[in-house]
Structures are given as C-alpha cells and as structure tokens.
Amino acid sequence: METFALWLSKQEKVEVEAIIDSNPTGKYKNLSFRAKQKDGSIIMIGRQDIILDEEQVLIDELAEILYHSKLQSQHERYSFIMKQFIVRGVPYVNRLWNRKPKINQQVTLDLFDAG
After folding, report:
1. How many Å apart are CA 102 and CA 75, to the nearest integer?
2. Domain carrying residue 18
3. Which residue has the higher pLDDT, 22 or 112?
C-alpha cells in the first residue's frame, strides 16, 4: 500500500504503511496509522492528526461546493463527501476553513468590528 498523507501537527508528508483499528467492535472506528517519515523512522499517528492525500482531494471538492455553489446541500456530491468524512472521522474542518475565500472573511470581520 503506497498511500501518502499529511501529518498535521508536524506539517510533514509521510507514507502510510498500515491502518490499525483499536476498536473494531465499536460503532465508530478509532483508527491509528503506522507511517514512515522521510528519514525512515516508523511512527504511530492518531486519526485526528492525519489527512490522507485522497481525503485532501475531497476537502478541496467540498470547498468548491460550499464556497462556489448556490445550493450546496442539494449538490449531488455534498452528502456523499460529508458521509465519508463523518464515517472515517476525517479532521476536515480546519482545512476547509483555510480554503474559504479571503474576500468573504474580510467582509465578515469588517461587519463584526463595526458592531
């Protein structure tokens, strides 16, 4: 398995070697990832601290839907992507927020400051 991911706390690209489910009988998965760093060392990374490259593509697609569509919830891919994120426990919120267009953020801040 040659899957690459971003280790969020270190902002480092790693190669995922294995996915370990520490709660296989539970309703929600509690995943850990065994990954190899660039220097060759093996580390364990918790689910909330890693985003796979394939998930980053889905985050980019969701950002396009949310920030550039008029009817976001009726978009054919919106519910599929959200279900994937919830079931997999993907930490997508901060990455999605960073994709928000700067123009809209500035307007919101100006209105908030004007109070």
Report:
1. 23
2. 3-114
3. 22
